[in-house]
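Exercise 7. Given the encoded structure of a 56-residue chain, write a plausible sequence.
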């Protein structure tokens, strides 16, 4: 299987039933660079439509 097979798999099993967009990743990065995230340290932020919580 290739990358498209992996993308289709994520779309089927991720809780949001889709992949994320570049815009969503950019918004997460902008948030982390903003004053709103000033108290956040040492965290992993998954921008993956919930795929990570599936334990895969």
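Solution.
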């Amino acid at each position: 299987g290739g990358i498209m097979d992996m993308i289709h798999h994520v779309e089927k099993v991720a809780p949001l039933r889709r992949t994320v967009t570049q815009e969503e990743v950019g918004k997460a990065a902008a948030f982390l660079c903003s004053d709103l995230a000033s108290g956040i340290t040492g965290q992993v932020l998954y921008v993956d439509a919930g795929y990570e919580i599936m334990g895969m």
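Remark. The two ends are 17 Å apart (CA to CA). Students should compare their own answers with the one above.
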